[in-house]
Amino acid sequence: MASTYDDLGRPPLRAEPLRRALLTPGSLWSELEVVESTSSTNAVLAQRAATDGRSGVVLLAEHQTAGRGRLDRTWAVPPRAGLTLSVLVRPYDVAVSRWPWISLLTGLAVAAALNATAGVAATLKWPNDVVIGERKVAGVLVERVETGPYPPAAVIGIGLNVSATADELPVPTATSLSLAGARTTDRSVLARAVLRSLEGLLGDWQRSGGDAERGLLTAYVQACSTVGRRVRVALPTGGEVTGEAVGVDATGRLVVSTIAGTRAFGAGDVVHLYPLT
């Protein structure tokens, strides 16, 4: 039977090979589904978390019509131009106070997968934007969901620009793997790499009891291009702070040296400034 998709340059995800590769004995992932279109993969899994106690559920969408990013921003690319997925996990053995690291380690997992598989020089802009140079190629949104009789869940959303052209990107400061000269834009290959990378980091983090100082913090700082830069932090409550990003603390907060002293920020919109003086 002939394929029904129209864009030969943007083939559909190969669901069955992904299941064979990822749903293996001992894997974190227990279920993987690919849907043609949905409003938000995060929203779908958040609803499912309240009625089903499973963990390790993966949902990928060929097209997302109402995707959300961090700070309530929208995220949209044409069908099959990006990799849009969410996973549902229940790290019940890690204190909730350490859950903010899920967001940071997810960004690290995506950057590592892109560097190894797509051959690009991806780094992290704190807390979890994946950038190539100064342009964003992927974003992460993590939501904690209270689920009644079941352990609380973390729903992790990842949006990666894969084959989007400059005209198709949501903002001028974004990029895509194709624009960055990646050696592959095969979304099935990329999905497998991202999910394996995420599984590895999540597993290590859970086995450490969520203690980021047992390797994760060092790896994150090494991958974070914000550290060592002069930055402006726009605060969620209003106002902004300018200074030099000097590190990330054990709770995942960005540490900034300002003229008024050193401060740590758990949330905020960071802008990299030039030059570092």
Short description:
The protein has 277 residues and is α+β, with helices and mostly antiparallel strands. It has 2 domains: 15-221, Bira Bifunctional Protein, Domain 2 (BirA Bifunctional Protein, domain 2, 2-Layer Sandwich); 226-273, SH3 type barrels (Roll), CATH 2.30.30.100.
Task: Write a concise keyword list for the protein shown above.
single chain; 277 residues; alpha+beta; BirA Bifunctional Protein, domain 2; SH3 type barrels; 2 domains; seven-stranded mixed beta sheet; five-stranded antiparallel beta sheet; 5 helices; 14 strands; 23% helix; disordered N terminus
Structure report:
With 277 residues, this protein is α+β, with helices and mostly antiparallel strands. It folds into two domains: 15-221, Bira Bifunctional Protein, Domain 2 (BirA Bifunctional Protein, domain 2), CATH 3.30.930.10; 226-273, SH3 type barrels, CATH 2.30.30. The chain has helices at residues 15-22, 41-49, 100-117, 187-207, 216-223, and strands at 31-38, 57-64, 67-68, 74-75, 82-89, 122-125, 129-132, 135-145, 153-161, 230-234, 240-248, 254-258, 261-265, 269-273. It has a seven-stranded mixed sheet with strand order 1-2-5-9-8-7-6, with helices on both faces. A hairpin with a 7-residue loop joins strand 8 (135-145) and strand 9. The relative contact order is 0.14. Mean pLDDT is 93; it is low at 1-5.
Give the domain tally: 2
**Could you give the count of β-strands?**
14
Mean pLDDT over the residues: 93
Q: Report the portion of residues in β strands.
A: 25-35%
User: So what's the overall shape?
Assistant: globular
| CATH architectural category of the largest domain | 2-Layer Sandwich
Termini Cα gap: 63 Å
Gyration radius, rounded: 18 Å
CATH class of the largest domain, anyone? Alpha Beta
- Major β-sheet, in short? 7 strands, mixed
Helix and strand content put the structural class at alpha+beta
Q: Mind telling me the CATH superfamily name of the largest domain?
A: Bira Bifunctional Protein, Domain 2
